[in-house]
Amino acid sequence: RELSLDMESVVLTDPQLSDLELLANGAYSPLTGFMCKNDCRQVLETMRLSDGLLWPIPICLDVQEDAAANLSVGQTVALRDAEGFMPAVMHIKDIWPVDRQAYAQGVFGTADPAHPGVDRMFNTMGSHFIGGDVEVLTLPLRFGFRRLRHTPQEIRTLFKKLGWRSVVAFHTEKVLHRPDYEQTIRAMAHARANLLLHPVIGRIRPGDMDTYTRVRCYLAACQKYSPGSMITLSLLPYTMRYAGPREALLHAIIRKNYGCTHFIVAPCHAGPEAGESCTAFYDPDAAFSLAASYAGELNLSVLQFEDLVYVEEDGAYVPKKEANGRKIRSMTEEEFIKRIQDGKKAPEWFTFPEVAKEMERSYPPKSVQGFTIFCTGLSGAGKSTIAGLVCARLQEMGGRPVTFLDGDIVRKNLSSELGFSKEHRDINVRRIGFVASEITKNRGIAICAPIAPYGATRRQIRRNIETHGGFIEIHVATPLTVCEKRDPKGLYSKARSGLIKDFTGIDDPYEEPERPEVTLDTTDMTPEEAAQEVLLYLERTGYIR
Ligand code: ADP
Questions:
Q1: How many structural domains is the chain composed of?
Q2: What is the 3-state secondary structure (H, E, C) of 403-425?
Q3: 356 lines ligand 1 (CB under 6 A)
């Protein structure tokens, strides 16, 4: 499109690209573009589009204030992904400021920032919405598991070809374990139907299982449906909002568009799970009640997910109300992951061995996981000395590759253009953190020893690394007086005489770690004793055996 050369661009985030894809492929039918102001308002207030059709959640495109200032009604803009690829153009019909309060109340039923959806909205949503039809040039680029991605039309054609007239849709954002499997079997039997296993694979929250692992688990679980031809697996590029009841209804409409006749709604469907319980914001049955109340209008049967429990003496799953005080077993996904990481066998009543095997590949025990040893503390505290010793001991042991991201090596190879200003030192630490997280992801050992004086930077590095493996923060807490007396590189005397500015401990703060895994004050220790403390910690927690 030569046209696009002088076209204004709007760069979409991953969740916005998901919405664009669902608008483009017909999953959001009857919508043909991002909503205009009137539709958005009607949807928030009445759950209906201005033409009266049922629609529970606005599908709006938000932009930041400065971007909005460059756009005007009547303009055609290019919608691009972060790499500049242009899946669609949009003809802007409406631009209006976001009323966050009304949006939060309408979609989530609350404006409480403790709700993760509300929080995300207040913190990342732009200041304005732009509405208008989208003209799709090509679907957004997707690389993973292509053969499992379908448009509604493709799925409908497939159902026709297979002779399936009744199909139950099962929505999930989790791995399919035995209870879910039993649920889908019961739903199929009840509805005398086949199954569309329809997991969502939009952007995931930090700490969520990676999508590739999850999809491999679905493929493994599919083998357990016998005959396997009773179900179809398809991946839905949709980003969860955690809006509970209204979102359950949106999920139902999407599945209706995919040609399904039945839809299973779980307790707390699409509710936020962050924090203690999913019931903090919505009644567990509210999602089912709302979706079921529109079943007639949608011409879609809404099935309630039964609370199934495993009864040991029967060796079977039964509805909770039929357990009658017999011994039942249950396990959460978190408990399950912890178990396999501890090297324990996955119980077959909870998950199929084939699924467990996939999970075990992605969640190996600590002795095989990568980890980062992150020494932080004042200059001269002993970080490099300890790190060097630990590095040598781990290499003597062998088994996993070890990389020592030593200060000088990093400065030479990664950060040669950086100086020692506050800002540059922080950039340097972040780069070290990034490389350490890649090493950890690839199951190696990264050892770092920067001063890393700022808590916020360390916390961010920890968050990134902990999604891939271990983060072991070693606070080398040798007091300033001792460090200054040692002054191995003569830096303190330079700082005192003003030759170096912003020196940590002298004229720049060191923010002490809140909960380091190990704290070492090397005033009265030999370097070997300090290193031994670190190795003992690794041994105790299972990272080395
Ligand atoms: P940093 O990397 O924290 O700036 P270094 O390891 O470069 O610190 O320097 C610490 C200095 O303190 C070295 O000269 C080292 O020999 C000395 N030192 C004395 N006791 C210890 C100990 N228990 N652990 C580490 N270093 C020690």
A1: 3
A2: EEECHHHHHHHCCCCCCCCHHHH
A3: no
Residues 210 and 297 in one domain: yes
Give residue-wise pLDDT tens across range 187-237. Answer: 999 999 999 999 999 766 656 678 899 999 999 999 999 877 899 999 999
β-strands 328-329, 316-319: how paired? unpaired
Write the ipTM: 0.94
Among candidate residues 309, 332, 347, the one where a domain is terminated: 309
**CA 293, 264, 112 angle in degrees (round to 5)?**
70
536 C-alpha to center of ligand 1: Å?
20
CATH number at residue 505: 3.40.50.300
Q: Which regions of the chain are under pLDDT 50?
A: 1-2, 274-276
CATH number at residue 240: 3.40.50.620
Is residue 94 assigned to a domain?
yes
- The reply to whether ligand 1 has any atom less than 6 angstroms from the CB of 48 is no
The residue whose CB lies within 8 Å of the most ligand 1 atoms, and thus the one to mutate among 373, 374, 385, 525, is 385
What element of type H or E holds 90? strand 88-91
Domain span at residue 22? Answer: 2-136
Domain boundary among 136, 159, 186: 136
- The answer to whether the pTM exceeds 0.90 is no
